[in-house]
Design a protein that fits this description.
By secondary structure, this protein is of the alpha+beta class. The chain is built from 5 helices and 5 strands. The chain has a 5-stranded antiparallel beta sheet with strand order 1-2-3-4-5, with no helix packed on it.
Length: 221
């Protein structure tokens, strides 16, 4: 519990409704935890731009309130398309859960695992008994035409971010880098498994329509 009210305080964040930067004003609060789980405070806030309400939570892990309220309602993450293989959706969802728990270094590691899973699912396997480095697998994906130069650059940055998270260097992964990593990984999954398939279906449909039009013209001659 806390004797100091938080009502009236503001927090800078991205509104989950209008998706604009805003100062969210706390209108009411409720404290809990402190027994089995860490103390937490639920904060009902309103957006300073669109005035829509949302619910945030802050936790105290022994060093005071963390100062980074997380939005828990409305849910901000869209579901990945079922066209993305289940194993990859599971890896990416775990990355999202890490981010929601503010485990940003773990988020980067899970993004890297997702990236490695993409390479394997695309048929880029290890050479012999030794696993192929992720850098080489991404290069092969580019050489095989599965990703273009820009996507290759994105994937390489995700790999570097994942390496930063996987190895102890004394530097943690920032919230901003973890958020960007999640977004880029999601864009890569959409490109490979949703947009590419949609474009292939579009080309096939157009080719069929053109062939039918040609056949009709020939039948009239």
């Amino acid at each position: 519990m806390s004797d100091a009210t938080r009502v009236g305080m503001t927090h800078p964040l991205m509104c989950p409704h209008c998706e604009k930067p805003t100062l969210a004003r706390i209108t009411s609060e409720a404290y809990g935890g402190g027994h089995i789980e860490p103390p937490y405070v639920l904060e009902l806030a309103v957006c300073g731009v669109c005035a829509d309400p949302f619910l945030m939570v802050e936790e105290d892990f022994g060093q005071g309130w963390d100062g980074e309220p997380g939005v828990i309602w409305p849910k901000q993450q869209r579901a990945l398309s079922p066209k993305v293989p289940q194993a990859l959706r599971r890896e990416h969802e775990e990355a999202r859960q890490c981010f929601s728990s503010k485990a940003y270094t773990a988020t980067a590691v899970m993004v890297r695992r997702t990236l490695e899973g993409v390479c394997i699912d695309q048929g880029i396997s290890s050479a012999g008994s030794r696993p192929k480095p992720l850098f080489k697998m991404l290069e092969q994906m580019k050489d095989d035409g599965k990703i273009d130069g820009r996507l290759f650059e994105w994937a390489q940055e995700l790999r570097v971010l994942g390496n930063q998270g996987a190895h102890f260097t004394g530097t943690s992964v920032s919230r901003e880098d973890a958020a960007d990593g999640l977004a880029l990984a999601e864009a890569l999954l959409d490109y490979l498994y949703v947009l590419s398939a949609q474009f292939d279906a579009f080309k096939a449909r157009r080719a069929t329509a053109e062939q039918n039009s040609t056949d009709e013209d020939e039948s009239k001659d």
